[in-house]
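Researcher: We're teaching a course module on how sequence relates to structure. For the next exercise, students receive a sequence and then see the predicted structure as tokens, so they can try to spot secondary structure elements on their own. Here is the exercise chain.
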Amino acid sequence: MLSLLFTDDPKQSLRMLRHLAAILSLLAFTIACAFFFHKGLIFASEETFTSILLLFWAGFLSFTVIIRSGLNQRFKDPSLTVAQLLWGATFLLTSIYLMNEWRGLMLMAYFAMFSFGFFKLPFRELLSVALYGILGYALIILYLFLKEPERLDIELELLQLLAFSITLSVMVYTGSSIHRLRTRARNQYVALQQALDLNSRLATTDDLTGLYNRRYFMEMLSTQKAVAERSESDFVLCFCDLDHFKHINDTFGHHTGDIVLQQFATILNNTIREIDYAARFGGEEFVILLVNTDIEDAKKVSERIRQRLAEYNFSDIAPALNATVSIGLASFKEFNTIQETLMTADDRMFKAKEQGRNKVVFDDAEVVAG
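Model: And here is the predicted structure for the students to work with:
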């Protein structure tokens, strides 16, 4: 039964839950009207009274079908709050007209129904529902005064209309104020979350390249060390340094140098796996953590990185511009300490530069030639 009413969409399920609460309220009003009819307080035949109840129940059940089918999501307000309130108000106003006396009881019911939009609707929509009730009640009084004065105590009805109008006006003002506060609080929460996300990105990433920064990389490196020791796995560090980067800045300008750094960062992200980490260590230095990888696989990855940068066409930026990188590799199992692994990768990167740059060095005696 519940699966017929509720969907996997949490927002739709919440709307349906609120709608069912409104239906329960309508059921309570219906029972109250049936009691009034039984006591002779409603001016209508049994057939007319039953037809009215069936009509309004059919209307509310149509809202159930619209929400359950998802058609409600085509509207600006998918909850259809105003439409449901106006339909409920029409039901109450019809009941108010049919009652011979004690119409004030149904006015109290209007306040209960109005509360369904009290915390959700903005001022204009709250005002429209309130005016619908006030004007509807005023028209009922006018019609009864002109056509059926024997069913009306005009002084009492006018006093009730005044009290009804004042109370609804206060509820509109209070409800709209609460809505503004909720909207402001929600906007502040969203702004706070965005600020926290920005701070988190700034704390963990390099602003220029979008790669991780040095501090966050070292934290991940410590975590990976613990994982490797526990699982007896290995990882490889790749220390990268762009060749002749100062010459690129001096010749083509720092803006072009920034573009080269960004493009190299893109190459890194497109070459390594999602489980790996790439960071900018500073300046033109980059470091890569290849998780659960041995030196042979790391050589293949590093060579792809080196080759892709060397073959990248920068002609749209500067016709004579080209960039290469020197890379040094070291596996954690060689040394079993982060410091020695990182220093060895750094030393091998310098050996790659000494041997002509644009190379990958993975052993003190071995070179993958560029």
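Model: If you want an answer key for the exercise: The first helix runs from residue 2 to 5. The chain has two domains: 2-197, 214-368.
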